[in-house]
């Protein structure tokens, strides 16, 4: 039996004052089960996040959670734009923490990919009359409404909305705040020259295109205090010529780090409709970028994209130097994946699990005893 120290995947990680029991993180995966007002209305979010926490992950990311009603990527997306949305998400954060995992939340504004922006009945605005904004008035696809170019007032309001949502999230127990700057959502449309044709302070040069992202990160860091981990999810490439790329991501990552961002979550794609690749269909550069950004920007990174196998996860951490692996579909498939991974890697694995708690103090309840029994049986 190896100790956790010999497996990087099961070596605890501390960032600021937050300790993750291992380096397995659950990717934010929207469930779209909230009420029309963004409240986690039933037990689905609790049970889903709870299963990942009970299943042994080190970090359980909840979300995407929208920062304002006009920024919803789905009419049933979770929100944290008002206090009414706090209690149910607080319950999720509390349960996740009780299982020994760190509760994290991803905050977003979907910009021109707001669900109501899809042309349905010819309306130019959402169900409550809000307009859709993006860096420039360029629609995502033919069946999406054309967004309005965000005014400076819009930009400042969205920045404030991120701060207010982040403060609510911290108040109700989340220890990691992730800002969603990827997948073609609002901030990504500012970063990429393909979707930003502005001529003001928020468009043109790389410095200008990064201004909105940097101002949100800076304001959120100041508002949440020193002990909370601040992460940013980026699309490291648009998979398109002249689009956002790894080189620009390195520059952004350096600037974000200087503002107190602790972790860059390396995703990809989602900006250009029809570009074949995305975080759901990544190329090797998505995982490799976690190494490049970690080395060149000197900031901790999370590697993700089709990580499904324990040895693969271990190898990704070793090769790239990423601090965490972030996993989506493999954990949907098996929320107890961390226990399976511990067995596959021959380590004791996560310490907290309901079954083992019940059996605490009884020899048959320990994983090593259980495995020895199996070995003995196989000898008979
Ligand atoms: C059901 C589902 C919902 C998702 N929702 C989000 C989301 O809200 N925010 C986000 O950044 N990514 C979202 N993603 C993308 C995942 O976080 C992740 O990037 C993607 O699944 C690739 O990781 P994987 O190959 O380990 O599944 C979602 C993925 C799935 C399968």
Automatic annotation (TrEMBL):
The UniProt keyword set, sorted, is:
Flavoprotein, FMN, NADP, Oxidoreductase
Question: Start and end of every NADH:flavin oxidoreductase/NADH oxidase N-terminal domain?
Answer: 9-342
- Keyword Lipid biosynthesis assigned: no
Q: Name one GO molecular function term.
A: NADP binding
Parts forming coiled coils: none
One Pfam family cited in the UniProt record for this chain: Oxidored_FMN
Q: Which InterPro entries match?
A: Aldolase_TIM, OxRdtase_FMN_N, YqjM-like
Report the cofactors: FMN
- Which domain of life does the protein's organism represent? Eukaryota
Which PANTHER family does the protein's record reference?
A: NADPH DEHYDROGENASE C23G7.10C-RELATED
| Name of protein | NADH:flavin oxidoreductase/NADH oxidase N-terminal domain-containing protein
